[in-house]
Amino acid sequence: MVAATGVCFAQAASYEIYLDKMYFTRNNFQQEVDINGVMWKITDYVNIDSKYQDPGYASSYYGFGYAGGRGQQFGKVESEKFNFLELNIESAVFEGEITDINLEASLSKYWQAGKLSVYVIGGDGNAVQYGETVNLTDANAAYNFAVPDDGGVVNGRVKIRYHDMTNTYSPGPFYLGYINVETEETSEEPEVETVMYEKYLDALVWKPSNFKEPQPITADNGETVNWQITDWMTANPTWMEDKYHSNYTFSYAGGKGQQFGTASDNAAFTNLVIVSGAFEGKITDINLEASLDARRNNPTGKLSVYVIDAEGNEILYGETVDLTGTNEAYNFYVPESGAVEGKVKIAYHDLTGNRGFFLGYIGVEYEKSKGTSSIENVVLSGEKIIEGIYDLRGTRLDTPLKGICIIRYTDGSAVKVIVP
User: Fold this and answer.
1) Which among 67, 245, 301, 386 could bridge 351 via Cys, Cβ 3.0 to 4.6 Å?
2) Of 370 and 130, more confident
3) d(CA 68, CA 49)
4) How much is the pLDDT for 93?
5) pTM value surpassing 0.85
6) What is the DSSP letter of 286?
C-alpha cells in the first residue's frame, strides 16, 4: 500500500457577457439586475445637476439605453442636466479569487474626458484596485485590469467606477460593452492512499454447491472483497436448469488457479461473469492472470474487464483480450475518460471448443480517500531503497521476469510494473 498526501488544485472559471441589450433601465437602475447569472447593481451615482440627484427623477428623466456595438448606455444625449458625472456598478460576490478583469467601454462624442477604474471589494469591505485607472475616449476600446502586484488576487465583488467626467459643452452618455471576470477557485484535493488489492488464487473458491453465492476473497493486504458469479451460459441451454447445476465442475488447477468447467460438453461454459463488491475509491488499474484449458478442441475465448459505477454504467477498462492455453498476465488500464469508482466485472465470453478456463490472479489498484492526515502517513519524496522484487505469487525474484512484478521498498510502499 502506497500512501500519498493531498495536494491543492485550482479550478479556473470565466464569466463573460457582451451587453447586447439594455439591462439597466429607469425603473430598475438601483435594483439588482441579473446579467448572465450574476447580479449587478448601480450602487452610487452623481448627477451633473445636483438638484436632479433625487432618485424621484429617475423613472421620468434619467437616460438608459442600448447603443448597438457599444452595449449598455448610461445617460442620454438630449438632456444635459440628467447625465452622470460619476456612476458605480457592483457585482455580487464571485466564487473564487478574481485573477483578471476585462471591460469594453467608451464615452459619447459629447464628452471631453472621463475615467474608468475597477476594484474588487473583499469580505472585509476593503476595495482593492485592479490594474490602473484608464482615460476613456469616444472610441469603443478594450481595457485589461490585472491583479495588483502588491496585494495579489482577491475574493469578492467587482466594482466598475466611471468618474471625473468633464465636458466643454453639452455632455452625453457613456457605455459598457463587455464584461469578463476570470476567477480561480483553489481547494485541497482529498488525501488519498493507493491500495493494492491482490490475490493469487491458490485454493478452490467456487464449487457447485456455492457458485451462485458471493465468495469472500482476502487479499495479501488483509482486505476482504466479495466476488460473485452473476451470469453464465452453458453450451447446452437446457443445462442452465437448476437440476443440472450439481454437474457443473469447478476445481483448483495448481499454477493456473481457479478452474471453471471441465466435465460434460453440455455443461461447458460459453460465457461466465464474475462481479466484485464495490471498491472504496477510484480504480486505477486491474491485472488478471487467465488462460484456457487447451487439452482438446482448439479452444478460443475472450476476456473483458469493466468497472460498474454507482449508476450501473459499465465502463470498459483496457481492451478485450483473446485467451490462449498459456497462463498469461493481462493489464486492463484506465480508459481515457478517467478512473471510475465501483465494482469490477470480469467477463469470459465467446468461448468455443472449451472444456474449462482459469483465473489465476486478481489485482485491483484503487485510490482510497484518507479520513485524516498525519505526518506518519506521508511517504517522503526522494530516493527509495528496494527491499525486494516479487512475482504475483509472492515469490522473491533475483531479477525482474517478463510479465507483472511487484517492487517493494523499505519504507513499506510498493509498485507494480510490467516487464516487456
Assistant:
1) 301
2) 130
3) 28
4) 94
5) no
6) E
Say if residue 373's pLDDT is above 60: no
Is the predicted pLDDT of residue 168 greater than 60, yes or no? no
Q: Are strands 300-308 and 314-322 parallel, antiparallel or unpaired?
A: antiparallel
Contacts of the segment 410-417: beta carbons below 8 A, 24+ positions apart: 410/384, 410/385, 410/386, 411/379, 411/384, 411/385, 412/1, 412/379, 413/1, 413/2, 413/3, 413/379, 413/384, 414/1, 414/2, 414/196, 415/2, 416/196, 416/285, 416/287, 416/363, 416/365
Give residue-wise pLDDT tens across range 320-336: 999 999 999 999 999 99
pLDDT at 3 over 50: no
Note whether 110 and 171 are within 8 A (CB). yes
Give the CA distances from residue 69 to residues 19, 52, 66, 387, in Å, rounded to whole numbers and listed in that order: 9, 29, 9, 70
> Which residue is it, cell 460619476?
86
What is the helix (H) or strand (E) element at residue 58, kind and residue range? helix 58-61
What's the pLDDT score for residue 169? 59
CA-based nearest residue to 184, from 92, 90, 93, 100 = 100
- The CA distance from 329 to 291, in Å, is 9
Question: Beta-strand (E) ranges in 38-189?
Answer: 38-47, 64-66, 72-74, 84-93, 97-107, 113-122, 127-135, 141-146, 156-166, 174-188
